[in-house]
Amino acid sequence: MIKSIDDLLAIKNEVLPTLHLRNPKPEYTFIFPYNDMLMELGIDKEIDYAIDLLAKRKILNAVVIKRYQEEATTLTLTLQHDNKTVNYNVPSITILEAIILSHIEKGITFDKYLLNSEGSL
Amino acid sequence: MNKHYEIVICGGTGCMSSKSTKIKDEFDVLLKKYELADKVHVYLSGCFGLCEKGPVVIVYPDQTFYVHMNPSLVESIIVNHLKLGKIVDELAYHEFSPSLKQKVYKSFQEMSFYHSQERIALRNCGIIDPYNIKEYIARDGYFALEKALRQTPEDIINTLIASGLRGRGGGGFPTGLKWQFANKFRGGQSYVICNADEGDPGAFMDRAILEGDSHSVIEAMTINGYAIGASLGYIYVRAEYPLAVKRLQHAIDEAYAYGLLGKNILDSGFSFDLEIRLGAGAFVCGEETALIASIEGQRGMPRNKPPFPADKGLWGRPTIINNVETYANVPLIILKGPEWFNSIGTPKSKGTKVFALGGKIANTGLIEVPMGTTLRHVIYDIGGGIPKGKKFKAVQTGGPSGGCLVEDDLDTPIDYDNLIKKGSMMGSGGMIVMDEDNCMVDVAKFYMEFIVEESCGKCTPCREGTRRLYELLMLISEGKGTLETLSELKQLAKDVQDTSLCGLGQSAPNPILSTLEKFYDEYIEHVVDKKCRAGVCKALTKLYITDKCIGCTKCARGCPVNCITGEVRKLHRIDTDKCIKCNACLQNCPVHAIIHV
């Protein structure tokens, strides 16, 4: 039974994490290349980790997408934000977390593993 | 486990009739088979709007818009898209790129159909699960009610007046003023009614809102009840909308269960109950006094006004009647403020308008655009233009009460006043596009036949006059009309307009007067030359095979009465005495050798 604005807010906060995937204009899009070789290298674990990290930190303005790329041979990550694109090497989950949080929480690129970028953040 | 994908399947009536429920069932079964059920959430939403491409499925967060889906295609999406990240190109939406001169993949966000729409009334349609009140709340649902209940009724009414919201059902009366009028009669029982008796041919915007976002109407009606001191509301919806009724009832039950309807809503001391009343599908019950009579258990017939319903309505008590789309705007106006709403649209028509695009247009479906958008933008940029390279001829707005707009009107900004100036009206938002193959006499005849069927019969001008008008149009289309018939048609149309009891009767001759004004030459051709240039009026047309014929025999093979003869690779002939003018040959001919003469 809803009796106050607090009750409404509680429901809103409970449901928003499931609704955020339907946001037509997410602020940050993290794109993982995907193919059989990358599966062997552990790309699924990285994707799962990224999704869980965003959920755990209640980051609702970012989404994670996997995109098939036949030629990809290393674990990488593409970030799209404000029409800018940044590509990273992502050798480990620890690095992945550092990259994501660097962008979303600090608004800066994580230079050490930067491959290339178009535009500036 | 956190979800990786949201799969939204259009669950509007159109897509449901094309088995979208079975598509969902197939997803449920196959996601379990491929061990993805815990990573993917699948549900049926309200209408997405692009009905032409239905059944439609959107995969989020990728925003891939899969079109013309059926259950047998589901496995391909699971195996390729969900498991491997490969968009199934042949099923995904593509759009022609003028620069690349070919069709290219477009995500949901990039599609021209949605790009320039501004969705206020349709804000939740195609996004939320209509069976889940929590999703409505998560999109700020019922926050407007909470805010309103902390204000005075006068504050709410002043907000609506300042917003400039006008009724979306046809008349365009300022909503805030209507509420203010009822508030003056405060004291004792009063009522609010939602008019969901959507009857214009081709219009389905109210149905879409009720199917996809019932709570927006429930919330608005509760606010309306508080603003005028009403404790009871009715939603009058036609029984031909079973899905809308089902979802609406479910939403009402949810609202009661969550304490958002019933006694002491949000601990405010205000109580409000809401009930559904089913209409039997009479067009005239969209007229407010006829609607009230129907709820009272009487035959649905209009009465004279004044007194207006805001003074003496349901059971003689003050009653506010607004249509579905009007109500769907109210919560956001309360929440975001009148200035926000007022900043959208034209000086005298604020906000947005939902239109149902139908007829000869590539993207049939529902759209919502700011008032002031031009017809050209709606028809060509959003609607995708006229199919098969045909030439635009006219667009009928306002349904049977409206009129037609022509090529010269395409750059007119759409608002209440401009459409009236151009001889049409906004109506509830039906927009039927016609091309060169439409006969305007036939269009007028179609609407008049509809009105003859739907006239309640209470007043003589409408009951008898519309029938006579229809008979005159029949004479013209059968080649039996004369110039006197045209004069008689015009005079009688004006008489019916001037003397009918209610708005429906008064506006019934509009399609005739409008086509007479804008396509008089076509009427003249029918009565003087005994010719129908569109080849629609069968008595006035003959089919003829020109020298372009390549003798492929397709026309002869497709003719249901075997009236076409000819040898392979030689010119064919039609026996016009046997021809039933079904146009099958015309459609089958690959070289357009068959014409109307």
Folded structure, characterized:
The complex is a heterodimer of chains A (121) and B (597). Chain A is α+β, with helices and mostly antiparallel strands. Chain A is built from 4 helices and 5 strands, in the order αβααβββαβ. Chain A has helices at residues 5-19, 36-41, 43-56, 93-106; strands spanning 28-34, 62-68, 76-81, 84-89, 114-118. Chain A has a 5-stranded mixed sheet. Chain A starts with a helix and ends with a strand. The model of chain A has no long low-confidence stretch (mean pLDDT 91). With 597 residues, chain B is of the alpha/beta class. In chain B, the strands form 6 sheets. Chain B has a 5-stranded mixed sheet with strand order 12-11-15-13-14, with helices on both faces. In chain B, strands 2-1-3-4 form a 4-stranded mixed sheet, with helices on one face. A 4-stranded parallel sheet of chain B has the order 9-8-7-10, with helices on both faces. The radius of gyration of chain B is 26 Å and the shape is globular.
Sketch the major β-sheet of chain B. Answer: 5 strands, mixed
Number of helices of chain A: 4
Report the strand count of chain A: 5
Classify the beta-strand content of chain A into a percent band: 25-35%
Number of helices of chain B: 23
Order of neighbouring strands in the sheet with most strands of chain A: 2-1-3-4-5
Please give the alpha-carbon distance between the first and last residues of chain A. Answer: 45 Å
Count the E strands of chain B: 19
Task: Describe the strand arrangement of the main beta sheet of chain B, using strand numbers.
Answer: 12-11-15-13-14
Radius of gyration of chain B: 26 Å
Structural class of chain B: alpha/beta
Report low-confidence residues of chain B grouped into runs of 5 or more. Answer: none
How far the N terminus sits from the C terminus of chain B, by CA atoms, comes to 68 Å
SS-based class of chain A? alpha+beta
Main β-sheet of chain A, in a few words? Answer: 5 strands, mixed
The run of helices and strands of chain A is: HEHHEEEHE
Summarize the amount of helix of chain A as a percent range. 40-55%
What is the averaged pLDDT score of chain B?
95
- The level of helicity of chain B is 25-40%
